[in-house]
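Re-run with default settings, no changes from the original entry. Doing this only to confirm the output is reproducible before filing.
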Amino acid sequence: MTAMTEEKASLFADVPVSKAVLTLAVPTVISQLITVVYNMADTFFIGQLGDPLQVAAATLAMPCFMFLTAFANLFGLGGSSLISRCLGLGDRAKAGHTAAFCIWTGIAAAFLYGIGILLLEPVLFPLLGAKAETWDYLRQYVFWTIGVGAVPTVMNAEFAHLIRAEGYSKTAGFGVALGGILNIVLDPLFIFVFKMDIAGAAIATMLSNLIAMLYFIGFLLRIRDNTVITLHPKSYSLGQRIPLEVVTVGLPGFVMTMMSTISNTALNHIVAGYSNTAVAGMGIAKKIDLLAYAISQGMTQGTLPLIGYNFSSGNVRRMKQSIKTAFLYSLIVAACGAVALYFFAAPIAEVFISDAQTVHYGQTFLKIICLACPTTAINFMVITVFQAIGKKVQPLFLSLLRKGSLDLLLMVLLNNIMGISGIAWATPFADWVAFVISLALIIPCVRKLDTKGERM
C-alpha cells in the first residue's frame, strides 16, 4: 500500500506534466471509447438490415436506456466516493454498509424503473416520438433492454464504480470491456444467424450486461475476505447518514444524465415530426458524434485527480500547467475529430446503413453537430477544473446549460426558423453559448489562485 501510494504521489507531484496527463487520461479515454463502441454496436448491426424503421426504433429507445446510467452514477459514483473516504479514515465497517446500501438500493431502483417503463408504454411511446410503423419494433427493444435488462445494465456500471474505490481499476475496465466485446459478438449472432432482427439486438445487449454483471459478482465473491464491498443483505444500512452522503455526491451526475435524457427525448420527438428516416439519420449522427464526446470527456476526467491533488497541496503552478496541457491535448484531438467527421460524414454514415435517404439525413446532421466538438472539449475542461477544486454549483450549472435547458429552447426556435436542419444546429449553438459563459467563469476563478494555493 505504501509503495502504491508513493507511486501515485510521484505521478501527481514529480512526473513531467505532459507525461502525467497522458498517463492518467489515456486509460480513461480508452474506457470511454469502449463504452461508446458498445453503445454503437446495436445501431451499426441493426443498420445492416437496411430498415430505417428498426434503426429509428433503437434511436427512440435510447433516452430511456441512457437513464439507466443515471442510476449507476447516483449509487456508483456516490458510493465509491464515500467508500474511498471511509477507507481513508480506517472505517471499514461503514464502507461495507455503504457498499451494501448502494448495491441493493441500485438493484431495487433499476427493477422498479424497468417495470415502470413497461407499464407506461401507452403513454411513454408517443412522447418518445413513436409512430405506428415503429411502435412494435420499439416495444421489442424496450422489453429486453430495459424491462428485462435494467438490473444487469445498472449493476454492470455500478459495480465498476464501486470496485475502483478499492483500487481495482484494471478489473473494472476489464468488466466494462467484456460487456462491450460480448455485445459486438452477440449482436450479429442474434440478428442475422437467429434472424431475430431488432429483438435479437436487444437480447444481445441484455445478455452482454448480464454476463458482465455476473463477472463482477464472481470477482467480489473471490476476494470477499479482502474487500469491504459486500453483497450480503445483512450489511444493508440506512444509518450513519449513508443514504444522504451517497446521494449528495451522486446527485449531480444523476441530474446531468437525466437532463441529457430529456434533451434527447425532445430531440427525437421533434425530428419524428418529419419522418422515421430522419429519426434514423439523427440517431446515426448522434452515435458517431459520441466518439469525439467520449475522447473529450476521457481527457478531462482522467486529469481531474492531477488538478485536484496539486490544488489541495498548494502547487498552483503545476496545477495550472496541468490544466493548460490537458486543455491543449483535448482541443487538438477535438479539432481533428471535427475536421474528420465533417469531411467524411457521408462515408461514415454509409457504414451504418445503405438506405440513401437515411444516409443523407445522417451526413447532414453530422456535419452540423460535429462543429461543437472543440467547444465541447473546452466546456468539459472547465467543468473538470471546477470539480477538481471542490466547486459544486458551477459544474452543475454549466452541464445543465448545455443539456436540458438552452438546447431545448434552441431546438424549438431554430426548428421554426430553419426547419429540420435547425434542430441539429441547436447542439453547436448551445455549446457555443456555454463556451462563452465557461470562460467568463473560469478565467477570474483561476486568476484568484496565488502561488500559495489559497482557496477561493
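The chain is about 85% helix and 0% strand. Confidence is low (pLDDT under 50) at residues 1-5, 451-456.
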